[in-house]
Amino acid sequence: MVFRAPVNLFGKFKTAMDSSNLLNLLTDLIKDAKSAGADSADAIIVDGTSVSVTYRLGKLEHLERSEGGDIGLRVFKGNRQAIVSSADRKSAALKELVERAVSMAETVPEDPFCGIADPSQLAKTLPVIDICDPANIPVETLISHAEACEAAARAVSGVTNSEGASASWGRHNVAVASSNGFARAYESSGSSLSASVLAGDSNKGMETDYDYTAAVYFSDLRHPEDVGRSAGEKAVKKLGGRKVISQKLPIIYDPRVARSLVGHFIAAINGTAVARGTTFLKDLMGKEIFSSAITITEDPHQNRGLRSKPCDAEGLENSKRNLADKGVLTTWLMDLRAARQLNLEPTGHASRGTGSPPSPSATNVVLESGMITPAALMADIKKGLYVTDLVGQGVNMITGDYSRGAVGYWIEDGEIAYPVHEVTVAGNLKDMFKGMTAANDLKIRYGIDSPTLRIEGMSMAGT
Known about the structure:
It is built from nine helices and 19 strands. The protein is α+β, with helices and mostly antiparallel strands. The strands form four sheets. A six-stranded antiparallel β-sheet has the order 3-2-1-4-5-6. A five-stranded mixed β-barrel has the order 7-14-15-16-19. It has a five-stranded mixed β-sheet with strand order 10-9-8-13-18, covered by helices on one side. Helix 3 runs parallel beside helix 4 (224-237). The longest helix has 17 residues, at 19-35.
């Protein structure tokens, strides 16, 4: 489990243990670790309840409910650290957890950059952020949403089969404590709804597509019929795909796949990658890597944000910032370790799991809207490609070289002409970022969001 969105720090969490008990357990565990010989320590608990259902071909196919949690202890002896996790909270198990962690810390290699925060670095006050739905969603509601979603998808003319519709809900309680005095507990929730269907037949060809919605509050999900109908229409629209010849051309990225380009940018400014020299942006801090019309923002305090949190996993303050401001790269994403490696101040981007050390990650990231409509964005394109799906992971983060399979639609004289398949789009992310133009259709849905994007001069390999 990953350390995620903390919420209202004072909200009550109805699971096996409340926040105060969780924090007491952690502080006692840390005291025991120090008594056993650790110089410092921190610990995390993630408790949760989740329910998921799948409806396929008009029948309930899957129903799963899970409850439980994990506890992770990290101890330090000098410049050595060790991490041990367990799901068992009995006294004997916790005692063994401490003994194993301290013993391991005596034998692992030294790491001069590891260690918890200095007390002066800890966040002094934390904002209260609304990212926990107080409602408990009944299984019957999840089933009815999945049923309605799949029915809407299958009702689309041309849809011939279904991979099912799924609905889920979950709530988590996260508690983190450290020997530097940091101790916080957080609540978070999340819901999702999705559908995936097939269109066509084996004689004339088949296509599949999907749609989904996710939100902190169940009531903020898109309507089941909307999600299902959209999935069905997307699948049918792809029927009759043609092959096209290889050429260089402008490419339009649908918002669903444009998000992946923002994800590549986030990965490229990860402080750990910068410290290792394994990112194509390692020497470009303060330089213009996008056009001046592109700004990318991050807001960890967004109410009902899927990735929101009032501080990072090491107890450091986080804040809204521009990751790229009018095209200029402004920051790396750094936890304490990456910041020490780079001899910079940490940026409050640490995330945490029960069985792993903190590492840098982003919260709610948005590539801001441009000034023109998607239709205007493609109006002057004589020949181009509108990409709706990407296949494969052909991205080299060291060089920026980019090559991925693509599915979408041929653009001719500024209009969508017909579906296209079996093509590959390629370029270099440095050039792609520079040649990027954003439309004005941004919608905040997924935690990493983008409007429609146009990128000039990419290579497309077809027949």
